[in-house]
Amino acid sequence: MPIPDSPALNRRQLLRSVGIAALALGALGATSACSSREVVTDGTAGGEGPITVVDQYDNTITFDTPVGRIVSVIIPVPSMIIGADQSTARNVGANKVAISLASAGMLGTMFPQFLQTPVVAGNDFVPNVEHILAQNPDVVIQWGDKGDDIVAPLRNAGLKVLLLKYGTQEDLEAWITIFGDLLGKKPEADDLLATMAADRAVVEKSARAHAARAPRAMYLYNAPEIKVGADNSYMDFWIRLAGGRNVAAGAGSGSSLAVTREQVLTWDPEVVILGNFEPTAPEDVYRDPTWAALSAVKNKRVYKAPLGGFSWDPPCNESNLMWLWVNSVFFPDERHDLRARIAETYRHLYAYDVTAADVDRVLHLPANSVSSDYDRLFRA
After folding, report:
1. DSSP letters for 206-226
2. Around Cβ 274, how many Cβ atoms within 10 Å?
3. Where is the Fe/B12 periplasmic-binding domain (predicted)?
């Protein structure tokens, strides 16, 4: 699972053997080639050092010079750094899932050089310390809530490690603030937080207005394995925020809770949102006879979550667009002018002018056009 709740760390013992001697591998890695619109970070951007950053575990990390080389084991982080910089230059190592999502989504189109970023971890978040040292990073960004076994090898190798935690909107806002400090982009971070706050207020107002007809909704992280977003997940947050009732509430915890077909049939969701970490499309669900009795299937209300600079279903720097999208899906009289908002957001975050075809791709328009109201809501 790309953003798991309890990853299996099957290389931990091997990593414990990586010691300080491995620092000899720390030759400079080649930086990615930059497009003509990129702002190249050469290690002097962001003002003069020292820079001090406090992570989500109250660890204080100090840098004598501005941070120019960042490795992220965490999947959404590279797209957020690119969105702050309009450049891939600081990303010198990434999770393979981040690169896969970039290839499938818009990030690889906007910044094709990111697809050549060295891979330093997979979906278990176990860092390849040798590969990381070879990139000579100023800092490594890693999860702090999934055990010390994926953190200690990095620190034992003499690397500076910035720890984040996953799951809530408050955590996402903390990431944005931390990256603003780390990158010398505090005004940009504050602007993004203000935009999110304004959009949240819009969606909350809509949800209150439509409270009497809140749909039974379900986020399906993995359709073949029937894994859903339950309590204490970001998906539960945006379902409730947008005015829905999460049918998986009370069934368990996490963004990928395994449930049975019988449970789903009993819950009978009226709207189903499909995640981007496996390829199931609405038509696949409509064709599956085991789901024929679901209200969401009968009424053609199954939708694939958008995939932009990052997938919109987990927290990212485009999450406010996800809230607006879900609110429109739940209540089709709420339009939000989402196509224009996508174009505005991409100019602001990525210095990129999207085409109509780009927006169709972000919104999974071909796949979602088989579902109720989608063309009316989102086609140009």
Report:
1. HHHHTGGGPPEEEEEEETTTT
2. 26
3. 69-334
376, burial (CB in 10 Å: exposed 0-12, middle 13-18, buried 19+):
exposed
Question: Which run of H or of E encompasses 362?
Answer: helix 356-362
Rounded Cα distance between 369 and 354, Å, is: 20
Beta strand pairing status for 245-246 and 227-228? unpaired
Q: Are residues 315 and 353 in the same domain?
A: yes
Q: Do 145 and 200 fall into the same domain?
A: no
Residue-wise pLDDT tens digits, 131-153: 999 999 999 999 999 999 999 99
Instruction: Report the C-alpha dihedral over residues 123, 125, 127, 131, rounded to 10 degrees.
Output: 30
Q: How many CA atoms lie within 13 A of 186 on its CB side?
A: 6
- Which two structure tokens, joined as six digits, stand for 49? 């050092």
Domain holding 215, by residue range, is 191-378
Which H or E run includes 203? helix 186-209
pLDDT digit string (tens) for 218-257?
999 999 999 999 999 999 999 999 999 999 999 999 999 9
Residues 41 and 25 in one domain: yes
